[in-house]
Structure formats: C-alpha cells, structure tokens
Amino acid sequence: MREIDELAGVDDPAWPELEQAFAAAAVPVEVLPADRAEGRRSLLQLQVTARSVLGTLALNSGGLLLDDGWVRVFGGGSAVGGGLPSLGQVNGFPVDFDPAWHPADGLVVGHDVVGGVFALNGHDPSAVGRPGAPGQMTYFAPDTLEWEALETGHSGWVSWLLAGGVESFYDGVRWPGWRAEAAALTPSQGITVFPFLWSEQAQADIAATSRRAVPMREVLGVAADFAGQMGLADPGFLGEV
Questions:
Q1: Which CATH number fits domain 4-174: 2.60.40, 1.10.3470, 3.40.1580, 3.10.28?
Q2: Which of 107-116, 125-134, 167-176, 179-188 has the lowest mean pLDDT?
C-alpha cells in the first residue's frame, strides 16, 4: 500500500500537460471542479499516482464533460451540486481503503448519454466476458448491447477523446440536434431513444427516432435488461449512477 501523500505529491504530475490538452482539444471540454476529499479517497483506493491521467483526473477534477456533455469522463467527483459522481462512487469503492478490494468486472471510467459505457479491463477480462487485454479500454455499445475492445489504455483513450475521435465513433448513433439535447441534460440524466438504438428501425433512420431525458440509471438498466432478453451475454457491471 502506498499512502495518499506519496500518490498525490509526485514531482511530475500529469495535470499541467493535461490542461494544455484541454485548451487545444478538438471538441468542447468542461472540466468540473473537484471534491478534493473524494478525489483523494478515489486515488488511494486506485493506488495510482498523479503522474497518470487516471490519477490526475481523480485528484484534480470532478470529471470531464466532452462534446457538450455527450461523453462523461469520471474523475474525483464534482464539488458542485448536481455534478458527476466520482470514480469511487461509480465503481462502489469501499468507504475506507481496502487493499483486498478490486472491481470485479473492471473499472468504469466513462459513460455517454445514450448508455455507452467505457471501462478499463481488470486482470482477467475473459472471466467476465470482456474482449481485449488486461488494462485496456473496452466499450459497451448501446447499438449492439455488447462489449468491444478499444485497443488502448486509459491515457490513450482520453487523448483520443480530446482529439475528436468521437465524431466518427458515433457515426450512425447521433441524430440531427443531438448536441442541443445532450447539452440540456443534467449530469445524472441520459437520453432514451425509441425505437431503441439496437433496433433495425433506429439503425435505418436515426433521425426518425423519438427521445427523452431520463435518469442515467434507467438508460443503463434498459440496455442490460434487453441484452438478457435477446439472449446476449450479461454485460455485467455498468456503473452506479
């Protein structure tokens, strides 16, 4: 176990370089103010230093809202009411540091507003049916209800988001006017799409769907329920929101 001061008080933290990346980002980025105590709690349980992008986001930000809120990247939890939950809250970290505790299905590090889930694979992703290598990013896709490997680590994923990789990634999933609808949400809300994104109707004409803002837990719950009903693999843990 490394103590919190050792994890946080590094000589070469990633935060200054990350701030420069925010300023040069190809998509709008909102950096939420951090809850310092919650961020330190998350950092301690993660046992990563502020040299890493994962650690520095936990310590120095309440999370990120990218592309007018379409993608939420979890950090240390926002000190402002109605902000994003922390990595610790989303992943159900123990209240006090527990060296024996590890996220069973991997670490959820981001959501998008239509129920997509970004997660870091744990030590044995095959045990929970996840593709990709340990420590690499995976994505639960709301248009297929299955996990897919992203073939990058957490820092590469954040760099990809800031470089505008989401534009092609969400091709066919976004509808005319998506930006205004995403920007109008609170961080606890998502968007339910009907016909559902995995339906033939939605995939044939995403612009013809109807949508409404609902609690994010409802968006995630519907996707998990339908995966079971359709005989697909259980997606497992999608985050506590």
A1: 3.40.1580
A2: 125-134
